[in-house]
Amino acid sequence: MEKKAKIYIAGHRGMVGSAIHRKLQALGYDNLLLRTSGELDLRNQQAVADFFAAEQPEYVFLAAAKVGGIWANNTLRADFLYENLAIQNNVIHQAYVQGVKKLMFLGSSCIYPKLAPQPIKEEYLLTGLLEPTNEPYAIAKIAGIKLCEAYHDQYGCNFISVMPTNLYGYRDNYHPEHSHVLPALIRRFHEAKTANQPVVTVWGSGTPRREFLFADDLADACVFLMENYDNPSLINIGMGEDLSIKELAMLVKSVVGYEGELVFDRSKPDGTPRKLMDVSKLHKLGWRHTTPLEAGIRMVYDDFVANCANQ
Ligand code: GFB
Questions:
Q1: What's the rounded Cα separation, in Å, for the pair 310 and 308?
Q2: Looking at residue 170, what is its pLDDT?
């Protein structure tokens, strides 16, 4: 990508899109095309068609999506399926219509079968049943991957798909029910510390294992792949290590400085027992993450205290 290239970041105010935005700015890209959801509703087919026709972006990072943690995925099932299909259909199709040079579609590790062998290789896609709590979101993301592949196969489009592991970072969602586990625990431990509460509740059994990548590392990988990867086959992005939810809770507890007890609420779903990406394909291309988990949690906790704790 030339430094003057016109690059559209769909979803630039979200956690992932804003990290990509920061990364591109830091690298000197200064012809970035940005629209808030209020300015451009990506679910609106005509609005997206008009936008692409008027603006003619050369490159697209498709980081706009309806996202959330296990509870939001499981309860807002229609919204997750419909809105994600609409957004990606509109953007990917218009990228084809207007001859975008290259598009990156961001998926999710939940596209893989619930009981996939670990670590999860890219070729395990569509080899087994999905985790029920996030099946609608996963089905939408799988459709996006297949749409990119199909536009490549039928029309020769350079549309690539990347599959990030579970993420955390600046501008994360700290909603008490709808967020992912890491921001949820940051909020809960912080509030318990502030209010001197003796016990904090963690959802599920604490035994599921997850891998967590800092969103700024993900953004670095996305820009790296935009420049170095031209293959329609999906590619995983992760750090290659996981930990149990109980271990994560202990880590967040120590970063926050909370001294009370943990209890596990087994009425809440565990989701997939383990989700660890095989990142050997990415490592072979020459990219590795740089932010260790504890250091990343410290950075986002400081940011939470400064910017989000009172919201
Ligand atoms: O982060 P999370 O919602 O995502 O939950 P998933 C991960 C694990 O943490 C589950 C447990 O076993 C939860 O039960 N957990 C413990 C909590 N306490 C909490 C809490 O307070 N909040 C939340 N949210 N979880 C999502 C998918 O699954 O991962 C999406 O639903 C997406 O589709 C995303 O792929 C990356 O890893 O289970």
A1: 6
A2: 97
